[in-house]
Amino acid sequence: MSQSIIAKRYADALFQLGKEKAKLEQFESELVTLRDVFRGNKEIISFLNHPRFSMEQKKKFVSDSFQSFSAEIVNTLKLLVERHREEIIVDMIGFYIEMMNDAKGIADADVYSVRELSEAEKQRISETFAPKVGKQSLNLTNIVDPSILGGLRLRVGNRIFDGSVSGKLRRIERKLVSANNR
């Protein structure tokens, strides 16, 4: 079974547990912190994977390091360590956050622009495009890309809305080439 499927199953189980205990928001905030910790410290995964340390040492490390987290999150981490699934922790957190965003009607999106966008501009873009993809709002990541020349390009999942100058020029070029080939 692929790591992605396994990570998704753990995320789903944690999501259901959070729903039952009314701790979805708390879990999300703890998991975001946890993801930052694991991304910023690759040594943690190395330690948890290392065969020289016993399972008890690894579990104690998890308990001590994340003692301020809820028992459910700590127990999930211990379970993942016990089953030698440390490498899926970051993926599992990503899937959990996706589930939370779906539940809230939020989608992650990348917006490409020539310059950094202001918060007001990002808000307007979110309000304009969220209904077009069936969401309440968009969680925008602004990517500055001078190659688009002007305008915007928005990517939400696998959908692209291209209102950039370079995109319009490419479309005009394709029309001219196809008209000349007739």
TrEMBL record:
Signal peptide stretch: none
Domain of life per record: Bacteria
Any GO CC annotation of this UniProt entry: plasma membrane
Topology in membrane: Peripheral membrane protein
Subcellular location: Cell membrane; Membrane
UniProt GO molecular function: proton-transporting ATP synthase activity, rotational mechanism
InterPro entries named in the record: ATP_synth_OSCP/delta_N_sf, ATPase_OSCP/d_CS, ATPase_OSCP/dsu
Keywords: ATP synthesis, Cell membrane, CF(1), Hydrogen ion transport, Ion transport, Membrane, Transport
Biological role stated in the UniProt entry: F(1)F(0) ATP synthase produces ATP from ADP in the presence of a proton or sodium gradient. F-type ATPases consist of two structural domains, F(1) containing the extramembraneous catalytic core and F(0) containing the membrane proton channel, linked together by a central stalk and a peripheral stalk. During catalysis, ATP synthesis in the catalytic domain of F(1) is coupled via a rotary mechanism of the central stalk subunits to proton translocation. This protein is part of the stalk that links CF(0) to CF(1). It either transmits conformational changes from CF(0) to CF(1) or is implicated in proton conduction.
NCBIfam families from the UniProt entry: ATP_synt_delta, PRK05758.2-4
PANTHER family according to UniProt: ATP SYNTHASE DELTA CHAIN (PTHR11910)
Protein family: Belongs to the ATPase delta chain family.
Name recorded for this polypeptide: ATP synthase subunit delta
UniProt source species: Halobacillus trueperi
Taxonomic lineage of the native organism: Bacteria, Bacillati, Bacillota, Bacilli, Bacillales
